[in-house]
Amino acid sequence: MKDIRRKVRRAQTIVPFGVGGIIDIRGESFVAADIRSWAANGERVESPRLAAKLGVQGFRSAPVIPSGKAAYATRIGPTYVRFPKWLFCPQCRKMVLWRQHLEQWEKQAVCGICPGKPQLAPMRFVQVCRAGHMADIDWRRWAHSRSEGHDQRQCRVYKLRFVATPESSGLEALRVVCFACHAERNLAGISQKNVLKQVGLECTGSHPWQSTDDEADPCEETPQAVQRGASNVYFPIAHSALDIPAPEGLSEDDETAQMVVNHRMWPDFKSSEGSPASDVFREYIARDSAVPEEFVETLRRRYADEAASMPSADDPDDDLSIAEWAAFSAPKPGAGSQTFSVRRTHLGVEHDDPESMRELDARISGVVVADRVREVRALEGFSRYEPSTGDGEESDGGRVVSVNTQGRPLWLPAIETYGEGIFISVEEHRLRTWEELSSVRDWTRRMEQNLDASFKADRLRDKSGPKLLPRFVMLHTLAHQFIRQLSYDSGYNSAALRERVYARSHAPGSELPPQAGVFIYTAAGDSEGTLGGLVRQGQAPNLVETLTRLLESAQWCSQDPLCADSTGRSLANLNRAACHACTLLPETCCEIDNSLLDRTLLIGDGAVPGFFRDVVQAALGESAEVIDLP
Description:
Blueprint: E1 22-25, E2 28-32, E3 43-45, H1 48-54, E4 58-61, H2 70-73, E5 80-82, E6 86-88, E7 95-97, E8 121-122, E9 125-128, E10 134-135, H3 139-143, H4 150-153, E11 160-164, E12 174-178, E13 184-186, H5 195-199, E14 224-227, E15 235-242, H6 255-261, H7 266-271, H8 277-289, H9 293-309, H10 316-329, E16 340-345, H11 355-363, E17 364-383, E18 401-402, E19 411-426, H12 428-435, H13 438-452, H14 457-464, H15 470-489, E20 497-502, E21 517-522, H16 533-537, H17 542-553, H18 600-603, H19 613-628
Parallel strand pairs: 4-19
Antiparallel strand pairs: 1-2, 2-5, 3-4, 6-7, 6-8, 9-10, 9-14, 11-12, 12-13, 15-17, 16-17, 17-18, 17-19, 19-21, 20-21
């Protein structure tokens, strides 16, 4: 039996083929439907910290198709709808508007006229708008938009042919022709702004997966024609959080306490103190966890006391980064959790080691290897045509579309990944002294001016804080160079690694502790997620060698001097000395879209001293001495 089932990995149901994303499989094109289609079969994913940040009750992962013979009988799984619905036959070139009643289970769309029944191909262009709607282009109206005679202007027949002529090239060679009246128009200029409005096409105010029972949104946005595989068709909005130990005072071995804390109603119970619902939440949690209600109430009081003793953050993203930073930088990290097993180590540098190693050791304040970490990644929504710049309706970017297009979602789609990682913190006193240099501040201020003028300013501020600090750019660049070097040393390819940069700035007057560190970890999608390569490289003497090599390699780029002397690169000029040849990574690795990178702040140049400049100069001097030996 030939298996033609369309399959995607569970991790891909968040990014890049999450709700609203288009996927091409074996010549067919589909779009992921919203979470209403698989809610009953979703598996629960626990992450109380992330749920509180996003204001939802919990998370669920997409149902998995079973293996073996059951795979052919089951029909559970994420729902993907055929889109675009306008298809054409590659042989006779006839266009077909595919309807739901023509769909057959596990069968491809084929031409019913040509011998051999060739598979129909989807049309290349679709229409989207800034409000997040997407639909097929009305190709009948497009073909008749330049009608000349009365018969062509009055034609209402949906019999079209998609013709490719060899006489010309590009989009001018592609024409949509009407069978009945012979009206036609090529695709030249279809991607120009407002061309669909000139034809008389308006936004449908709907999404491809919506049924006839779903009411369309009244939309006044101007639709734009884009290729269905273009990068501006889908901008997913994803969030992630690491599982960290319970607050101090709870034993990591206390599985009962962990069960209570991980209960789906725990966030609501913590915030319901003094309300009538508090008793209901406490009763449900106690019953499901098989503990007395007094035990649940005691845990809430303990959490409330510890929360009151800590300064609060103004930004929910700040809350996540502070808790993770505290867990990694604790003097004695816990090592007994099922989802967070870390241990502190060191570079292993001695007093008689080379000067470059001693200079490096003086700048690294702590090293922690994570034998096991768990990350939960959730999809909040998406935007189209332009990335979202904020939550407001009047924002300059595209509007955020929820994963549930018919109401506020109570839960979000998510996945959990397990892996290993290396955490490195930088010595705060040396870092602050370096940041106070006028040349470093002026250099970063020019980058911040570009950031303020960028359409991604709000999203990047969520990571960098209200002010862009030199440490953020430097540590972000260090993380990228670290991943590139680990792809040679650890056994993982660069696409399997991810970064978390801890270098946020805080609001004036805030008592939150400063952050200065990076965490590089695996992003595997299975329950194991570790080969041991990162943990091995994070221990002495491997780590100091890896760090030295990455700093040496960061000195040059095949695009130099264009790369090194750049005053603005990439989208919105948010990078300086950083390009694909030296610093940029696959999209899955970077948490802020390969932005705010600069090798100059890492290793320095003639005008700006890099934070690790002395390390690089000492290493080069030692290499020269070895070469000069007789």
